[in-house]
């Protein structure tokens, strides 16, 4: 097996690429984007499917094996099954997944499945319609539920629910979400609230911690045991319920940062390569994808980006500076 190519100065090799296919979204989660006056990337600046495919192919040549489609909301990108088909056909790509808010999922799920998509994460913070409306500023809870049930019917797997855990808001949802997951064989991933919102609303005391959620689950459902990680580089810490029914995961960037094992790169919808969700700098690859640059020149851009990667986010330090891009224009 050839030596991994994309190794940074801390010895971490990168085989996971997250591809944002649009920065547009059809809901307005308050911890991500403002309700109004959101500036989106002009369509001409968004990478075409051919450009995304070419970039992913080059990245696969350098050892990238896993791709995740993100947004904004990826399902807003027209003909997404075409891209799914292209990406799942790339040599070396072993895993293709998508993160969606599920609002239009029910009408897209079959076509995406037929194109080769199997793994899906649906962003849902609550099972309460009113709280859904409060968080997203849209009344689409029932649509998301239809999307989840469509994926269950079609046979996606694994299906995961990503729930952002904002304190003093979603405590009543922690246990019901896990119960829903146990009932349907869905893993709920609780994500600690991160300072990535467009309006700078993040406060440390608004972060519902993994330890607090674990207590709620143990009290509300039953004891849990941590599952030894299959891949230490995976961001989630996973637990299964001792009664054997269901598992939950935690993405705890604030209380248990996992940067030392990070294997992720991100490309934004407008073609900027980022070595970290919180990176201040980024590399323009769109120009190289459009100006006739050779494959080797693009390889060099990817390599140099990885070579500049920092050790990790600085949320827990006084040096922390929020990234110049909010979450919706990076993609999770
Ligand atoms: S914060 Fe950055 S370095 Fe840390 S795990 Fe996330 S992407 Fe990797």
Q: Element order, helices and strands?
A: EHEHEHEHHEHEHEEEEEEHH
Low-pLDDT runs of 5+ residues are none
In spatial order, strands of the major sheet run 7-8-9-6-5-4-3-2-1-10-11-12
Radius of gyration: 19 Å
What does this structure look like?
Strand 11 and strand 12 (283-284) form a beta hairpin. Helices cover 30% and strands 17% of the residues. The chain has helices spanning 49-61, 80-88, 105-115, 129-136, 141-154, 171-184, 210-220, 286-290, 295-307; strands at 16-20, 66-70, 95-100, 119-123, 159-165, 187-192, 224-226, 237-241, 247-251, 264-267, 272-274, 283-284. It is globular. The chain has a single domain (16-330), classed as TIM Barrel (Alpha-Beta Barrel). It has a twelve-stranded mixed β-sheet. It is built from nine helices and twelve strands. With 332 residues, it is α/β, with parallel strands linked by helices. It binds iron/sulfur cluster (SF4). Iron/sulfur cluster binds next to loops.
């Amino acid at each position: 097996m050839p030596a991994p190519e994309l190794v940074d100065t801390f010895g971490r090799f990168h085989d996971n690429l997250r591809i944002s296919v649009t920065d547009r979204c059809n809901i307005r989660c308050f911890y991500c984007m403002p309700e109004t006056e959101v500036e989106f990337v002009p369509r001409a600046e968004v990478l075409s499917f051919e450009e995304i495919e070419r970039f992913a192919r080059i990245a696969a040549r350098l050892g990238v094996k896993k791709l995740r489609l993100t947004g904004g909301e990826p399902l807003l990108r027209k003909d997404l099954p075409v891209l799914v088909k292209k990406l799942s056909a790339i040599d070396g790509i072993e895993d293709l997944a998508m993160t969606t808010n599920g609002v239009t999922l029910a009408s897209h799920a079959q076509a995406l499945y037929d194109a080769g998509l199997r793994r899906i994460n649906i962003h849902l913070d609550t099972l309460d319609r009113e709280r859904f409306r409060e968080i997203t500023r849209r009344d689409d809870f029932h649509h998301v539920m239809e999307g989840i049930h469509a994926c269950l019917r079609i046979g996606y797997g694994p299906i995961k629910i990503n729930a952002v855990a904002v304190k003093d808001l979603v405590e009543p949802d922690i246990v019901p979400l896990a119960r829903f997951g146990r009932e349907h064989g869905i893993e709920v991933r609780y994500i600690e609230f991160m300072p990535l919102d467009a309006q700078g609303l993040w406060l440390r005391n608004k972060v519902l911690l993994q330890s607090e959620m674990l207590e709620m689950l143990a009290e509300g459902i039953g004891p849990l045991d941590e599952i030894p990680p299959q891949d230490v580089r995976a961001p989630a810490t996973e637990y299964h319920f001792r009664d054997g029914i269901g598992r939950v995961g935690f993405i705890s960037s604030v209380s248990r940062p996992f940067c030392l094992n990070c294997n992720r790169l991100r490309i934004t919808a407008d073609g900027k390569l980022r070595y970290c969700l919180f990176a201040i700098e980024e590399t323009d690859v769109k120009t190289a994808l459009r100006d006739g640059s050779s494959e080797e020149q693009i390889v060099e851009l990817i390599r140099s980006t990885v070579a500049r990667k920092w050790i990790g986010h600085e949320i827990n330090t006084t040096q922390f500076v929020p990234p110049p891009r909010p979450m919706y224009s990076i993609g999770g």
